[in-house]
Every structure is written in structure tokens, then in C-alpha cells.
Write a structure and sequence with these properties.
The protein is an alpha/beta fold and about 525 residues long. Helices cover about 35% and strands about 20% of the residues. It binds NADP nicotinamide-adenine-dinucleotide phosphate. Keywords: Oxidoreductase.
């Protein structure tokens, strides 16, 4: 068998191949080897030093508007290669075109937004943080808070499910803030990230050192971090726990943003009985969330909370729509849902289902339908499964286990306080969505959930066409949730820049404060 190509890493301003044999990236539908990645032998300390010394320094010599212009050019270059990204996503992620678009176009949209917001920041080199306040009776001596770019780099350790968006939703605010980026994509789907970096490097848009990529093992990455660096991690709660206890974070106070897993819920309010538009909206959104990217979205609906009296009707309506979802080879035009990202993830979904089996009943089992154009012994394709737990309080596993695939559980509640308490059993989630038509009840439910959720998405009949989707992460809104969800905070417009800036207070006369140029 001929060896597939070994994708090089880009560090210290040049392409460098690992010295090991590499890890193969596979087509999750056909099981064939596509390319290999390897990071053995890279001098990561030198690579990070170069990124700080050359990349961050060059970026920070520019204004926000100049850096925003670079983002716009990056977006243009990526757009010209969009077809290649689509092909890589089909081959390496096993996604149908509309699912690949969530990742690729989501990345382009986010880059475009930050380019526009950054342009509006103009020629400043630091950001004003509130107004100056006097420190005595007279305004002779004042305190002005400001935010300045941190003199380190931004390391991203990313998850497998968003190889395109996962890079650019972080890189856009980081580069706009003036921090060099080093990305380590998840191995299983590293190809798309690597190709995008290659296209941007080839186009010569960014200063040397501003964008680096390490593909393959994460060994040594955290050891190379220094006090002013920031680390943004997206992945499982288990890996997050390992990362949090690493000496770089524990001893050097490296700033870390952690996006981990989450048991997001959708909540049908008591007034939204079958036959109401809100009921239909919940059903539509649940089916969409379970099937887009085969349920491999950190924001996907995992728990569906409905009034006890509509449990049966909801199960039937969701099941009827899931029955129309064809699963299989994304290259077949008749397929609506492609593969999971790997056979390992297929096994993980089986394991998750086994963990939930004790606490749940199966309400819809897509596994009774054959895969389209895919060999079940090889392909990582998994049909949708709707579970239900009639005693939502006792079904602890449903509030604990995130099955990262097309699986969700229907849970009946007694009254609204009970429903809100069940949503909070997720111990902190990325998003909850509410469905109903009573603005007062929805408003107070949204407030009640805000402390334990990064985002509350409220769907009423009048926003049926306008709402952006439970699981879609819009750059305008905060992404990240407390507790189990990792405690991270990304996006949210220019709020994302906070993570890459250092806040300081300058205490001085008004004349000196005016000279800060804010
Ligand atoms: P994972 O196994 O935790 O891996 C995430 C990343 O961490 C990968 O790049 C992985 O590299 C790397 N990694 C593994 N062990 C490491 C270590 N000891 N030190 C440093 N890095 C290490 O997660 P995953 O399976 O790729 O992603 C699925 C999970 O991510 C799901 O639970 C999902 O909920 C979560 N997720 C969350 C969000 C969010 O925004 N909150 C978004 C997407 C996904 P290798 O691939 O080389 O092992």
C-alpha cells in the first residue's frame, strides 16, 4: 500500500514535517486513509518564542483597523478555496454539504463580522474601558481603565467537530487583538484546519509568526506556554480537567478559556400544547438539532423538557420527523445525515446509549432503517435515536452523560418550576431554548435560566422565520456556559477581545490621561 501524504506543520515561519510515521486521518464513511499528521520532533519552545517575538509584535505594531483589514483579506482568500474545503469536509468529516457549510460558512461569516467590528475601532492601539473617575475631591488626579493587547500568543487546542469554524471563531478576535495564533486541531479532522492555514500562509497576508499550526500529538504544547500567553481549549470535560491542572496554568496563571461538553435543553412551556405553533417549532428544532452534523455540536439539544401531558404527543411528532431522515454516505444526494467523525466516535455513541439504557426507554429507533450507500461494518454512520425517561428526576444518567451524536432524551415535567430545575440539573450548559407564546412566562423563565446558561434562545411564533436556531453560534452572542460547560466565554461581538487584552488602570492627571490616545 502506498503511504498517504504527511501534512506538514507550520512553525517558526516555515513548513516542518514531523519525524515520526504519523497518525492516519480516515474517511469515516469508506474507512480509507486520506492523509497523515505528525508533530514529532518539533521545537515547540522556539516555535512559541518566534510567534511571540515576530508574530504578536508585528501585529501589535498595527492599529485595530489595520488588523481588521488583514482579517477581511483572510476571509477573501478562504472564500476562493471554498470548494476544496467542501471536498475535504466530505472526505474527512463525512458530512453532507449543508453540514459542512455550518462549519465552513460559519467560519467565513464570523471572520467577516470581526473584520467589520474591528474596522470601527479605528486607529487606536488600546481600548478605553469606561470613563475616568476622580480619585479625590477635586478632578486633579484620576483613574482611567484601559485594555491593552497581551504581549503573548494565543494557543488553541480544538475539538474535532468544527475544524474550520473552531479555528476562525477564535482566531478572528485573537488576531484583531494583536496576538499571534498557534492552533492544534483535533487529530481526527486536522486536514481542513491545516489546509486553511496553508492557504492563508501561501497568500502572504499575515506577518511572519502570526499564524502557526501543529498537527498531531498535543505533547509539549502546554509546557511551552509562558505567563502572558492565553490558551483556548474546546473539547471534552475530561481533557479540560487534565489541562486545568497543568503547571503552566496552575503556576504561571496562563489565562485559559475552556469550552467543554454540555447537556443543553429545549423547554416547551406549559401553554404550548399540541396543535399550537410553539409545539411545532419545538419539534422542528429538536429534529434539526439531533441531525445537523449528526448531533456532533456542543450546543445540540440533548434533553427535551415537555409538560407531562404532552409527552406521548411530543414523542410521536418528533419520531415521525426523524423517520424521514436518511442516514449514510454524504456523497449520495438522497442522504440527509452523514457520518459521525470516526469509528471511535461511533463506539462512543454506542457506549453512551448503553449508559442511558438503564434510565430510559427508546421512543424512536432509526437503527431499524438501513444506511444508504454505506457499509454498516465500516462506516461511522449512526441513525437518530430518541429516548424518553418518564421519571425525569430519577433519570440521573440523562443529566450526566453527553452522547455526542444524533441522540436526545424526552423528559416530562409537572410544572414550570420543575422544568427549570430539570434544566439546571445539567450543572451549567451552553444553551437552553424555550418555546411558547406567553411573553411574560418566557421572560421570567429566561431570567431563571440565565445564571446557569451562556445563552437562552427563546422561540415564539412571531420569530419562527427570524430566529437563528438553538444550536447556531452567532458571533454577536456570547458562546460559553458556566460549570460543566467549562466556564468559557467566546464571541459576543467585541466582548471576545477581553480575553486577549490585559486590563489596567492608569492613575494620572487629566492631561496625562488625554495623552494615552484612547
Ligand atoms: P477531546 O478528546 O477532549 O479533544 C479535544 C482536543 O484536545 C483535541 O485537539 C485533542 O487532541 C486535545 N487533547 C487531548 N488530550 C490532550 C491533553 N492531555 N493535553 C492537551 N490537549 C489534549 O475532545 P473531542 O473528542 O475532540 O471533542 C468532543 C467534545 O468537545 C464534546 O464533548 C463536545 O461537547 C466538546 N465540544 C465543546 C464545544 C464548546 O464550544 N463548548 C465545541 C465543540 C465540542 P487529539 O485530537 O490529538 O487527541
Amino acid at each position: 500500500m502506498t503511504m498517504t501524504a504527511l501534512l506538514p506543520n507550520f512553525v517558526c515561519g516555515r513548513w516542518q514535517s514531523g519525524t515520526g510515521a504519523g497518525t492516519a486521518l480516515l474517511d469515516p464513511v469508506l474507512g480509507t486513509e486520506l492523509v497523515r499528521v505528525d508533530a514529532t520532533g518539533l521545537d515547540l519552545r522556539s516555535a512559541f518564542a518566534f510567534a511571540r517575538r515576530a508574530g504578536s509584535a508585528a501585529l501589535q505594531a498595527l492599529t485595530y483597523a489595520e488588523r481588521a483589514a488583514l482579517l477581511a483579506r483572510v476571509g477573501q482568500v478562504l472564500q476562493t478555496h471554498r470548494d476544496a474545503y467542501d471536498a475535504i469536509a466530505t472526505a474527512n468529516s463525512g458530512t453532507v454539504q449543508s453540514d459542512s457549510a455550518v462549519d465552513i460558512d460559519g467560519a467565513l461569516f464570523t471572520l467577516g463580522q470581526y473584520a467589520r467590528w474591528g474596522t470601527a475601532l479605528g486607529s487606536a492601539r488600546a481600548l478605553r474601558d469606561g470613563e475616568a473617575v476622580k480619585l479625590g475631591k477635586e478632578p486633579l488626579f484620576q483613574s482611567q481603565h484601559l485594555q491593552v493587547p497581551r504581549p503573548g500568543l494565543a494557543l488553541f487546542i480544538n475539538a474535532f467537530n468544527f475544524p474550520a469554524w473552531g479555528l476562525w471563531e477564535k482566531a478572528a478576535p485573537a488576531l484583531l487583538s494583536g496576538l499571534a495564533v498557534v492552533v492544534k486541531p483535533a487529530t481526527a479532522t486536522a486536514w481542513l484546519t491545516q489546509r486553511m492555514v496553508q492557504d492563508v500562509v501561501d497568500a502572504g497576508i499575515l506577518p511572519a509568526g502570526a499564524l502557526s499550526i501543529v498537527c498531531g500529538s498535543s505533547n509539549g504544547l502546554l509546557d511551552a506556554l509562558a505567563p502572558f500567553d492565553v490558551l483556548s481549549f474546546t473539547g471534552s470535560a475530561d481533557t479540560a480537567a487534565v489541562i486545568r491542572s497543568h503547571p503552566s496554568l496552575a503556576r504561571h496563571a496562563v489565562r485559559a478559556n475552556i469550552e467543554a461538553d454540555s447537556l443543553n435543553s429545549a423547554l416547551l412551556l406549559p401553554d404550548a400544547t399540541p396543535g399550537t405553533p410553539a409545539f411545532d417549532l419545538l419539534v422542528r428544532e429538536v429534529v434539526r438539532e439531533m441531525t445537523v452534523k449528526s448531533g456532533q455540536k456542543c450546543t445540540a439539544i440533548r434533553r427535551i423538557l415537555v409538560p407531562a401531558k404532552v409527552y406521548g404527543a411530543a414523542a410521536e411528532a418528533i419520531g415521525a420527523k426523524l423517520a424521514k431522515v436518511s442516514t449514510g454516505n454524504p456523497r449520495n444526494a438522497g442522504v440527509r445525515m452523514g457520518a459521525l467523525v470516526s469509528r471511535a466516535q461511533f463506539e462512543a455513541v454506542q457506549q453512551g446509549l448503553a449508559q442511558l439504557a438503564h434510565a430510559t426507554e427508546v421512543l424512536h429507533d432509526g437503527r431499524t432503517q438501513a444506511l444508504v450507500d454505506a457499509d454498516p461494518a465500516v462506516a461511522a454512520c449512526h441513525q437518530p435515536v430518541l429516548l424518553g425517561a418518564r421519571d425525569a428526576d430519577m433519570a440521573q444518567a440523562v443529566h450526566d452523560v453527553e452522547v455526542f451524536g444524533p441522540v436526545a432524551t424526552l423528559l416530562p415535567y409537572r410544572d414550570l418550576p420543575h422544568a427549570l430545575a430539570l434544566a439546571q440539573r445539567g450543572q451549567g450548559s451552553l444553551v437552553a431554548s424555550l418555546y411558547g407564546d406567553d411573553a411574560a412566562a418566557l421572560g421570567s423563565a429566561a431570567l431563571a435560566l440565565a445564571a446557569s446558561h451562556g445563552r437562552v434562545h427563546v422561540v415564539t411564533p412571531e420569530v419562527a422565520q427570524a430566529h437563528t436556531g438553538h444550536g447556531n453560534v452567532m458571533p454577536q452572542s456570547l458562546h460559553g456556559g458556566p460549570g460543566r460547560a467549562g466556564g468559557g466565554a467566546e464571541l459576543g461581538g467585541l466582548r471576545a477581545l477581553d480575553f486577549y487584552h490585559q486590563r489596567a488602570a492608569v492613575q494620572a492627571s487629566p492631561q496625562v490621561l488625554a495623552a494615552l490616545g484612547l
